[in-house]
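Name: Pirin family protein
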Amino acid sequence: MNTVLSTFPLGFPWQTQDPFLFAVYHLDHYPKGNGEMGPDPKLLEGRNIGNDFTIKDGWRMYHGSTIPGFPYHPHRGFETITIVNKGFCDHSDSLGAAGRFGEGDVQWMTAGRGVQHSEMFPLLKDDSENPLELFQIWLNLPKADKFVDPHFKMLWHEDIPIIEEENAKIKVIAGNFKGNQANEPAPNSWAAKGENDVAVWNIHVDANTEFTLPKASTEVTRTLYFYEGSEIYFGVKKVNPNFGVVLDGLQDTTFKVGNKQAHLLMLQGKPIGEPVAKYGPFVMNTEEEIQQAMDEYRVTQFGGWPWPYPDNVHEKEKGRFAKYPDGKLVDK
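Structure predicted for Pirin family protein:
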């Protein structure tokens, strides 16, 4: 049977299906650092600083002014899953939590009733380039959990299951791949309930081989994002890189890989099936709730900002670490 329901080009951000809200892929070939964790100021000339989303010389500053990244901004009503395959991300938030993670680490943050955070990409190496490869995925929260307490969790790359098959490598960030269970997600996550069959897998398949995605255990939405490679084939149907593939999750899906290794991300989950109202970083069920979130943020700032700068970064010499809201410190 044909398991491919549709295909679509990958934009910025990527198209998603319930229970996912948003997915984006950042690939930036950042230059050498200037000693202060940013690029040489001369390289910033000609950029729309503060809103630099156009790739120039292979990289972008995003909303950063001296260091690339996203200075403080609020979230309410959903979760972020941030996968950093290359480079580093410096996290700071209104709970007082902080961290530096990268080189395969994953951060899982529940915004719940409201949190501010910043995500900056420090250029730590001054003698060589600082490539960054990062996915950020927004996973919705059902109405019953929109106002849970914010939660910050690290999934360190040393602890994430990576399944090595004869011709493929599968990083299991969420869900279960052939009996290999991912680490526990944040406690109030839609992914925390096994019956929702949420899966986030980063898949790498060798050239000129076949790979089979096992079917889901329940009715789910399933999207495969083909972000790097030459081409893949579902039977006679050819799919080029930078395309997404909507699949029937109740069937095993086999595809063949062309003459370059294929790099893919798969998002899967049982739909929440509730109304979605979105405005920027707020995701609720009604427009009235969005207005309430905006009004509350104006008054409370979701706890304020305990850091010295909107684009806060940590000491350059600091390694990978996480500081949790209760003060617990983990150094990696």
